[in-house]
């Protein structure tokens, strides 16, 4: 039997949601009929709006899709202005203040505390510079990810940016592909370092070379069915197909259509294409694609470049593990990757980012899958002055490894699914680790990813140290806790972290990392990386090396942050919530 | 009187009449030694899988784990609230011991 969500989608979905959204915005949040709220909130996701969690009713998270992470000149400034004017909530975050921009692991942008009543103005401002929230959430083509320096990188096999943009143009707002069984995450990469992270996407186009009619042709191999969510992580599987850049859109559309026709619409937990791949296997998948969805004969896979992949790999093979730092572009200019701790940047800093990008580069800013930003097209002679800018004191191109390696999802601050507080906690962890823990000699890349739940938005399974939200009891009292996983990474032979220690109280996690690193240093062979060390060590032995311990680190958010309306409010009890509110922020209940 | 019961947002919560009533991350004491061997499993709710009503009792099927022993899985149907004249009445799920009912048909 189709689910409620499928029923709602069959009634109204896709582009047509917009007119309803604008009408509700005009009339006010409280005019959405009470018995239709679940349906409308589900549909609003397609236009990038996600109703915030319990206690924050009438406020929305807004996601803006920036294909391949590219913000063209002028767009960053508008994002900052929109955040400044519309993304301010009824309470302040103690680290980030009120009004900030989140750069996400899918090279998108998230704003919080958005009021439905402001949507028409926000859409107008965003669309005036070519930005859009369309399909940023919901069951369709999500923001397309890829190498964030595509078209500029010296390590490029093929320039994938035109392909990513063509896919975006073709499948955004495309009625044939607007209602899929579930979300559809696509990665397109042409660089040699693997920074599109195709292995964890539903559809991955990866650089390859194929001899066709006697000619060496550059293009992409296709992998299908990767993803990290729900305790069911999968690596995308090779379906033995090569496409040229010219064929990429047609074949990608065929695969999307295959998913549309064959994905499970009766059970949303089984709907992602990774489960169809489990059921069919790569060979059947290819056969069905060829026979039912493509009109020409597909080429078999070409020679790939996976042995060169370095991005987020945990291996020190000479390639980049991220995009932080100052790097020469193919055209002789430079890109400057700035570390944004846990991906969150205040509105004033975002305005500064726009100004600095404009003054020293082309005005373009790019977002990476490690929640960082890149200023591109900086002439060599301007590099020194750029580095003297105050902005770079806070968002460094040469950060400490614990700062550089930190990723965190949204967490209980706003998210319904999360079990624990995340962003602020990872900031506290990184700062404490920087002050108190020595990394073994030569370790410059060390990735710690904190995700609040098994949805895995912080991509915990592909980090050196994976942290995942949980609960436990400490001295009889329930407290927030984290599962600890080790040794995940992508690269030539990607693998997911082993969850070696479960339910560590959050105040003992920094001590656990400190002890683990000391144990690693003691047992390290030569200059092996942490991932290599984990790979050659038994899981049981690893668990013994973790050693959770209380330290000078103190965690102010040990309690159930989900039981608060906002964890950082002075009175955080649910009863103190001002929500739901009118468009001007005044509580609806108090005067109705 | 009809009551709408649903699981929404990737299993984040139970909706009753279009209002969010039960959320993941709660800690429940289950009267279900068969789940993991613990006398009263100390169960953290990670995902809501299904919701149904048996008379006036609203029950949910959830995925989670016992934080005492680490066993993870799906217990039977767990009562999460009651219906009174079509309205959802919460129970203090984190402070009472919740019975667990076997079987797949709570509609």
From TrEMBL, chain A:
So which domain of life are we looking at? Archaea
Task: Identify the keywords attached in UniProt to this record, alphabetized.
Answer: 4Fe-4S, Heme, Iron, Iron-sulfur, Metal-binding, Oxidoreductase
UniProt region (Disordered), positions on chain: 569-592
Molecular-function GO terms, alphabetical: 4 iron, 4 sulfur cluster binding; heme binding; metal ion binding; oxidoreductase activity
Specify whether Iron is a keyword of the entry. Answer: yes
What InterPro entries does the record tag this protein with? NIR_SIR_4Fe-4S, NiRdtase/SiRdtase_haem-b_fer, Nit/Sulf_reduc_fer-like_dom_sf, NO2/SO3_Rdtase_4Fe4S_dom, NO2/SO3_Rdtase_4Fe4S_sf, NO2/SO3_Rdtase_FeS/sirohaem_BS
Q: Which Pfam families match?
A: NIR_SIR (PF01077), NIR_SIR_ferr (PF03460)
Q: Which residues form the Nitrite/sulphite reductase 4Fe-4S domain?
A: 137-293, 403-549
**The Nitrite/Sulfite reductase ferredoxin-like domain, residue ranges:** 54-90, 96-128, 327-389
Question: What family does the database annotate?
Answer: Belongs to the nitrite and sulfite reductase 4Fe-4S domain family.
This chain belongs to the protein called: Ferredoxin--nitrite reductase
Source organism of the structure: Haloferax prahovense (strain DSM 18310 / JCM 13924 / TL6)
What lineage, starting at the top, does this entry show? Archaea, Methanobacteriati, Methanobacteriota, Stenosarchaea group, Halobacteria
From TrEMBL, chain B:
Where's the DUF8134 domain? 1-103
Q: What is this protein called?
A: DUF8134 domain-containing protein
Pfam families in UniProt: DUF8134
Query: Superkingdom of this entry's organism?
Result: Archaea
**Lineage of source species:** Archaea, Methanobacteriati, Methanobacteriota, Stenosarchaea group, Halobacteria
């Amino acid at each position: 039997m189709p689910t409620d969500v499928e029923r709602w989608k069959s009634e109204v979905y896709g582009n047509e949601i917009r007119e309803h959204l604008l009408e509700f915005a005009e009339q006010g949040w409280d005019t959405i009929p009470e018995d239709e709220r679940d349906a409308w909130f589900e549909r609003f996701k397609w236009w990038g709006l996600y109703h915030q969690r319990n206690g924050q009713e009438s406020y929305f998270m807004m996601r803006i899709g920036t294909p391949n992470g590219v913000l063209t000149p002028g767009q960053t400034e508008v994002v900052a202005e929109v955040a400044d004017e519309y993304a301010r909530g009824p309470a302040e975050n103690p680290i980030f203040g009120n009004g900030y921009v989140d750069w996400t692991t899918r090279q998108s942008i998230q704003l919080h505390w958005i009021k439905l009543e402001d949507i028409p103005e926000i859409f107008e401002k965003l669309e005036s510079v070519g930005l859009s929230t369309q399909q940023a959430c919901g069951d369709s083509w999500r923001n397309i990810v890829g190498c964030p320096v595509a078209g500029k990188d010296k390590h490029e096999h093929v320039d994938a940016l035109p392909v990513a943009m063509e896919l975006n143009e073709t499948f955004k707002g495309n009625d044939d592909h607007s209602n899929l069984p579930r979300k559809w995450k696509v990665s397109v990469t042409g660089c040699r370092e693997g920074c599109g992270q195709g292995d964890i996407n539903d559809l991955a186009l990866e650089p390859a070379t194929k001899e066709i009619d006697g000619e060496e042709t550059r293009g992409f191999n296709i992998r299908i069915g990767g993803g990290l969510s729900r305790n069911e992580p999968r690596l995308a599987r090779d379906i033995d197909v090569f496409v040229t850049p010219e064929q990429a859109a047609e074949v990608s559309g065929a695969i999307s259509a295959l998913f549309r026709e064959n994905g499970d619409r009766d059970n949303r937990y089984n709907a992602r294409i990774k489960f169809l791949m489990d059921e069919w296997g790569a060979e059947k998948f290819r056969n069905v694609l060829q026979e039912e969805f493509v009109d020409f004969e597909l080429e078999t896979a070409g020679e790939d470049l996976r042995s060169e992949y370095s991005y987020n790999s945990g291996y020190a093979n000479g390639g980049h593990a991220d995009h932080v730092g100052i790097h020469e572009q193919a055209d002789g200019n430079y890109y400057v990757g700035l570390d944004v701790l846990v991906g969150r940047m205040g509105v004033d800093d975002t305005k500064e980012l726009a100004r600095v990008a404009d003054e020293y580069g082309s005005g373009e800013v790019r977002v990476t899958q490690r929640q960082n930003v890149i200023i591109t097209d900086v002439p060599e002679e301007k590099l020194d002055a750029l580095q003297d800018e105050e902005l770079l004191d806070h968002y460094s191109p040469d950060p400490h490894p614990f700062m550089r390696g930190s990723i965190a999802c949204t967490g209980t601050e706003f998210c319904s699914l999360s079990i624990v507080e995340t962003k602020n906690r990872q900031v506290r962890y990184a700062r404490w680790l920087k002050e108190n823990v020595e990394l073994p000699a030569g370790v410059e890349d060390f990735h710690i990813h904190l995700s609040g739940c098994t949805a895995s938005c912080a991509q915990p399974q592909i980090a050196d140290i994976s942290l995942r939200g949980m609960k436990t009891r400490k001295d009889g009292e329930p407290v927030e806790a984290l599962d600890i996983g080790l040794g995940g990474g992508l690269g030539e032979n990607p693998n997911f972290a082993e969850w070696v220690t479960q339910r560590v109280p959050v105040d003992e996690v920094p001590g656990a990392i400190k002890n683990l690193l000391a144990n690693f240093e003691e047992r390290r062979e030569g200059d092996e990386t942490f991932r290599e060390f984990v790979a050659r060590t038994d899981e049981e032995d690893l668990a013994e090396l973790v050693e959770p311990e209380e330290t000078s680190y103190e965690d102010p958010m040990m309690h159930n942050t989900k039981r608060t309306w906002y964890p950082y409010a002075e009175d955080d009890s649910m009863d103190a919530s001002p929500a739901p509110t009118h468009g001007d922020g005044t509580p609806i209940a108090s005067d109705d | 009187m009809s009551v709408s019961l649903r699981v929404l947002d990737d299993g984040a919560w139970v909706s009753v009449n279009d209002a969010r009533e039960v959320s993941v991350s709660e800690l429940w004491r289950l009267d279900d030694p068969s789940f993991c061997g613990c006398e009263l499993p100390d169960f953290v709710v990670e995902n809501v899988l299904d919701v149904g009503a048996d008379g006036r009792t609203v029950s949910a099927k959830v995925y989670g784990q016992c934080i005492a022993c680490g066993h993870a899985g799906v217990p039977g149907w767990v009562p999460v609230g009651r219906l009174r004249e079509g309205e959802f009445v919460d129970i203090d799920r984190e402070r009472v011991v919740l019975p667990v009912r076997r079987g797949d048909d709570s509609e």
